[in-house]
Amino acid sequence: MIQFNLLPDVKLEYIKARRAKHLVLLTSIIVTAVSVGIMMVLFFGVNVVQKRHLGNLSKDISEKTDQLKKEEDIDKILTVQNQLNNLNTLHDAKPAAERLGGYLEKVTPNEVAISKLTVDFGANTIKFEGNAKALRYVNQLIDTMKFSEYKLTEVGEDNEPIITRSAAFSSVVLASFDRKDGEDALPVSYEITASFDPIIFNITKKVSLEIPPSMITTRSVTERPTPLFQPQASDETEGGE
Fold it and tell me: Is residue 186 a contact partner of residue 144, using CB atoms and an 8 Å limit?
């Protein structure tokens, strides 16, 4: 069977172009309709749903505020709450004074006793008075304090321990002493002043005191140590802050 194409090529191209135009137009209409629908949903959400939600929140806040205002002594409660929030900060700022006894036991020879103790944690100074069997033991106490170091252990970024060592005491001075007839072998009374690194009493730091190995007569290493503190005739051992 023989078929003849009676339409010219120009007519065929026109028909194809019109079909493509209709397809593009239909696609544009669908995309526009979807965009308008999305815009309407967003507009409804922002101007209706969100406003309603904000209104409900404002209403709840007003109701809770009115309830709090009706509470008795609300100002006192809030003041106490604020103080409780500051407890951790205050706790970290206070000195670890309980470490003092252990430090003194490590640096004080067994032949030396302390009868009066004053510590100023603000100025980082310490002063103590007492008695010793001989002046050389007082000098030994001073030397031990001068050469004592503290070991600070901290955790680094890679969770590895970082150890720092530094002098624990400085400006250790024998302020006064009293010795009968100037003989070294006789008992003496003394007064020592010194400054300390505040880190050794920092409650947030892990610190230990290390004394020179040659100092073997301190109470921390003797088997039968004598009492560290002994009362004076009229004054008792005291601590200052």
Answer: no
- Token couple for 147: 């050469």
What is the C-alpha separation between 20 and 18, in angstroms, rounded? 5
Domain that holds residue 42: 1-49
- 37 and 136 fall within a common domain: no
**Residue 181 domain-assigned?**
yes
pLDDT tens, 18-71?
A: 888 888 888 989 999 899 889 888 888 777 778 888 888 888 888 877 776 676
Is 186 a member of any domain?
A: yes
pTM of the model: 0.55
Same domain, 202 and 118: yes
- Beta bridge partner(s), residue 165: 151
Cα–Cα distance list, 219 to 68, 145, 192 (Å)? 60, 14, 18
Long-range contacts of 25-29 (CB under 8 A, 24+ apart): none
